[in-house]
Design a protein that fits this description.
single chain; mainly alpha; Ferritin-like; Ferritin-like domain-containing protein
Length: 237
């Protein structure tokens, strides 16, 4: 059973350099740190299923029909990613649930931790977690065996519905300026828990210090992309 344990040291979230400055994609060899294909697929597929479940709940709780209509496609897109990843699992085994099961409890626990106390917190959690986890698993795909990485990138880089979430959150902040500072603080909390999920996907070698040094540029790039997304909402990451 997989569990996420908080590290003894505080997770430092890298900040962007001057805004607008392009960051180079880190050239990091992740081959030794990428898990085997089936564990990668199992965790990635269950994450997308979890995002679909959370988005479905958010749609159900939406305050207006217009919000429901805007967010409905986002739930469908998460489900589509899940189904495409499950199809990849079926290339190798007949029962995808067996491959996803080891990750279910920990990811379900994570979903509850970042569920949020209200609708806007829940939206922000989805925006943060979907962005970070999609980005990280795209990076990790570079080290997958049998040349399957490009297919995984194509699946995970597909439309996610984050723009619909961003539009609704931005409208809420425009109507209530105090909401912005609250959601910025909530988003920073979600980042820490989401990075623990990402780190749990890494296959550690016998030299953990070396592993951390090699993976750190990837986390820097993932957080930089997250910061740009939050910037677009007018929130401080």
């Amino acid at each position: 059973m997989f569990t996420f344990r908080r590290p003894k040291v505080r997770l430092e979230v890298p900040r962007l350099k001057p805004r607008g400055e392009a960051l180079q994609l880190p050239r990091v060899n992740l081959a030794e740190l990428t898990p085997a294909l089936l564990p990668y697929l199992g965790q990635a597929a269950y994450i997308q299923l979890s995002l679909f479940e959370s988005l479905s709940r958010i749609v159900t709780q939406a305050p207006t029909v217009a919000h429901k209509e805007s967010l409905g496609p986002a739930a469908g897109q998460a489900l589509d990613k899940h189904e495409r990843l499950v199809a990849e699992i079926r290339r190798h085994v007949s029962d995808p649930a067996v491959i996803m099961q080891p990750f279910a409890a920990a990811i379900d626990d994570y979903r509850e931790v970042v569920a949020g106390a209200n609708w806007y917190e829940a939206l922000t959690s989805l925006y943060v977690s979907a962005g970070i986890l999609d980005d990280f698993f795209i990076h990790l795909a570079a080290g997958l065996e049998n040349g399957s990485g490009p297919r995984m990138v194509q699946i995970l880089d597909a439309e996610s519905g984050r723009q619909a979430i961003a539009t609704i959150v931005a409208e809420g902040i425009a109507n209530d300026p105090k909401l912005g500072s609250h959601l910025a603080m909530w988003g920073r909390r979600v980042v820490g828990d989401t990075l623990l999920v990402a780190r749990s996907a890494i296959h550690h070698t016998d030299n953990r210090n070396s592993d951390e040094q090699r993976i750190e540029p990837v986390f820097t790039e993932v957080i930089a992309a997250h910061t740009r997304r939050m910037d677009g909402l007018g929130l401080t990451a």
